[in-house]
Amino acid sequence: MEGPFAFLLLLLLGGGVASNSVRIINQSDEALVETLGRYNGKKLSPGLNFTVPFVDRVVYKQTVRERVLDVPPQQCITRDNVSISADAVVYWRIVDLEKAYYKVENLQSAMVNLVLTQIRSEMGQLELDETFTARAEINELLLRELDISTDPWGVKITRVELRDISPSKAVLDSMELQMTAERQKRANILTSEGERDSAVNSAKGRAESVVLDAEARQKSAILDAEADQKTIVLRAQAARQEQVLKAQATAEAVEIIAKKIKSDPHAREALQFILAQQYLEMSAQIGESESSKVMFLDPRSIPGAIESMKSIVGNESIS
Questions:
Q1: pLDDT in tens, 161-199
Q2: What membrane topology term does the record carry (predicted)?
Q3: For residue range 71-80, what is the model confidence (pLDDT) as tens digits?
Q4: In the 8-state DSSP scheme, what is residue 45?
Q5: Is 21 exposed, middle or buried (CB count within 10 Å of its CB: 0-12, 13-18, 19+)?
Q6: Single pTM value for the model
Q7: CA gap 116, 72 in Å, rounded
Q8: Selection from 128, 138, 137, 139 nearest residue 166 by Cα
Q9: How far apart are CA 79 and CA 131, in angstroms?
Q10: Quick one: which H or E segment has residue 50?
């Protein structure tokens, strides 16, 4: 009985020793190993690893993937003595597992306290309004300062984001009143500017209308004058042409009558009658003229005129 029991005990002890010597490290994880309580730089990488039982001991195992640190809200005082509450989220990862374990006792607690301190420091340098408008700049400053401060701990800060900045209720009420007043002022300014622009546009419109009306009247007067001038010229040309045609017709008629008188002695009396009739018609036209007021006609001059015409006709017939 003792033989099998001893063999079984040795087998169990051997299995336990073997199981303690085999270490499996997952992907993206690393582990530190101390030999007899002393770290000699031995680090377990992902995969199957072997250690010396009862001599080597895994003291620290962590992932090297990027992690998120949720920073709780923190009361801060701005440069203009306004109390606000700010919280943040920090993205970080371990780049040196040895420093993360041996350079700081509690890495995550140390990082939280460091982030809170940096937030209070940065907020204390800004006024309340700047904390809302310069959030990107604050994130950059926090990232740079935290990355420098955590470098001795083997930690790399990849991103810092201020999540929420909340003033107290009294400050919020006063900000709301200020924003309401500001919006009302902007509305009044926009209204006054709109009324001013409308008045200016109306005045410009009236001025342009007056100018256009004056230009239209001037152009109309010029066109009327040109039209009147053209009408006068056309009337003068027509009158001159009419006189020329009448003179040509009269000359042709006299020539025809002269020829007729030469060939027919009885046509002389008819010519005398026509000349007397034309004399009377000419006198009537002179009397109807607008420029004539009074016309005196001596009846005794008619026979004399006729006799003169007779002599002219007689001479022409003789010639």
A1: 988 888 877 777 777 777 788 888 888 888 888 888 888
A2: Single-pass membrane protein
A3: 888 888 888 8
A4: P
A5: middle
A6: 0.50
A7: 8
A8: 128
A9: 10
A10: strand 47-50
